[in-house]
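Re: beginner question about structure tokens

> Can someone show what the tokenized structure looks like for a real chain? I only ever see the sequence side.

Sure, here's an example I had lying around. Input first:
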Amino acid sequence: MDLLGWGELVAPDALPSILNPPSGWIQACGGPPWFAAADPSFGPQSWPAWLARDPESYRGRRVRQLLGTGTRSFRDNQSMLYDTVVPAAMDAVPLLLGVAEKRPDLVQSAHPDLAAALDLLRGWNFTADAGSTGMTFYHVFWAMLRGRAGAAVAGDSALYAWLGSGVPEAQDAMIRAAGDAARVLQNEFQTLSVPWGDVHALVRGTREVPAPGAATGEPVFLLSDSSYENGKWRAAYGTGPAIAVQFGETPEAVSFSPFGSSEDPSSPHYADQMDLLLERRFKPVRYATESVLRYAESGTGLRVTLLPPGVTGSLTFSGAAPIRARVAVQVEAPEALPAGSAAFSLHMLPERVPKGVPTAVDLVVQLPPEMCPDAELGRLSLFALEEGTGWYPVPSQERDPANRVFRGRHDAPAKAYALLGPLELLPPAPATADGAAPALPSGVPLGLDVLIGENPVLQGNGARRVFKFERHDAAGQEGDETDADTEAGTSTGERVFKIEKLDDTKHTGDVLPVPEVPGFQFGPGARKSDEERAQRKDSRVFRLERLDKVELPNEEGVSSGEEAAPAPPALETPEVSPGAPGPESAAAPPADTEEKAVPEGAAVDGVPEAATIPDVVPVDPNFNFGPAYKKPGEAAGEGGGRRVFKMERNPKPEE
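And the corresponding structure tokens:
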């Protein structure tokens, strides 16, 4: 670290930390660490002033207030992100109103609309909602106050303290800033009552909407309000991605990404989460396998399995090359069904690109018991729709009456698929008292075990394999003890293992293999025979040699190795200018430097000392990014600071 210019390190256990505080929560809103919990066991008196210079924020105060109200539900915690209470205004506005009551002379000499503006603030509920007129006035008032305070009171934290001091200059600035705000609103909007959403906008692409939240006053719901254009403050930054997790036997999580997950304006996900922000909602996080497959918009790969929405089933695409596939569903048939037939499932419309890649489709559909009696399942079949040929039964299909599952395989994706049967078997729509769909009998298995796990295609080549992995060399025999030195001394250092397949699955040949791409291989020996590999075994030996002469000195002035390595004979050591410090002067401390304290964790009389932090910030005026740094005027030396290496294969491969 000395080579990089850093001073002594601060041990991690010397930094403020807290584990499972009694309050049951930890928060961080840019404030110092002693405000992370309700009653931390440490405070600013325990640490040097330079460690945490961030002041306590009003946003952090508001979060602590919400967390400290007692037990909160999962939904209560979600609502915190969208909290629009303006905590700083709850201190600043009463100060302004108090000064106005004590100094009527200042009010009378200010703008004539100031009295009405103060009445507006008296009726404000201190929120930054889109319909709030008080927020608009407070925002303009605070901007005017910053200008009145000037550079002598830099930053909002200093401005809060200045107002709280009650000095006459601060009182005068507050009244005059409020008068300025009344004048600006009258000139710009011809009224004092301007809804915040009319002048605070959220813009994404071509869409512009009224925006709640703010930066002024530090509400938790942060949307910036400093960029003014065409009569509106446009939010340029604000709340980032957020997630709320509820742990338990089955974890539950919701998340939100402002605007959307894409920065491409042509993407459908460029602004698809904008309504979540405006409506102050979250979306569920999909992490369970069935949930991911069910709600996936599309999938990419040699094999893609998707669960169509509204269908208890799955579609598996198997391509001869990587494809991107998706499945849409619709209630109405894309083309008239065969006479006397009805659909017992939604119509599934598969898509895949590129369309020229040979692709097989495996279908699995489970039929609820209410849709058809067990005795009539034989009259239902999976059908495919092709352009010009209409609906026809999928050529290769089978039924599983015990699980009420229909499986089929198609050698190419059709325009649509559906489970069809005689119209007279279709039951009337079930009616329940509360309008909810009737529950399936508990004896009917559901989920991925049926839809995918028992799919013969997936089971044959995509399901789990059971193997036995066993070591067969002498070092692995039970009772043998071979230390690292003995193993390292063997001639080859090989380990011999045996892997044996224990399950009875067999490759049936009905799954398309991964295509072989010309010129592609996993490693340089992938296409060689076993004999060639045996001959060339352990023949990949390379030698890396440094050719330049730059060495990193240690305290003794030699390189960091065990002993000084001689410089390559072809290069000479560069000269050091008379005034430039040499390695010894760079490594050795000044003679009058005080002796450093005992390092953190050192034992005193057998008792380890607690880790400490230095009282001043470690500062090195000669700080630079690496040993190759050159001061202005210093010669770069031969090679311009480059590191020169030579890499050659040893022995060289046979032609």
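Each token stands for a local structural state, so reading them left to right follows the chain. Residues 168-189 form the longest helix (22 residues).
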